[in-house]
Design goal:
By secondary structure, the chain is an alpha/beta fold. 42% of the residues lie in helices and 17% in strands.
Length: 189
Amino acid sequence: MTRDTRRVFSGRVVVAGLVLALGVVAAAAAPPRAPDWTLDAVDGRAIAFHADAAGQPAVLLFWASWCPYCRALFPHLDALRTEYEPRGVRFYALNVWEDGDPLAYMREHGYAMTLLTAADLVAEEYGVTGTPAVFVTDRAMRIRYRRGSGEAPRDVVGAVRIALDAALDETPERGAMPSVQENDTCSDC
């Protein structure tokens, strides 16, 4: 092998290594895909998440009627529902670890998200360990936001709004949104 051939070969190896490294970094930065699930809604319909969202952004709220943080956040998310549902966004209230009547609670407060009960196993799939947990998915079912514990309702609403606006604006021509936003600031909330 001549000196010039070695230089060209070495240069190609370096370039190939950089391309491989950038591909690994890009794959690592890609937001995770939201697990699919099927649950029965309180109206008797079986909801298969990926099929029901049908290529639209979605908000998932894991909650319980006994949870004071859920009670503080729920009205704000339901207000977002009235704003974003006409634009195709789906809102799901996945009830977990419940010892009360979630349907009565939602009726009493006039909340109209799709209510799914007995969502404990789905919560496990999403890594939910406390309530409320909030996820926003984009049109490709990638998780774009996850509520970190300790975030105040106004901060959650702001982050959900940003994630939804970006997801609604996203088209294949415009490219992908930034990776998942998460804020875990409070370990006891």
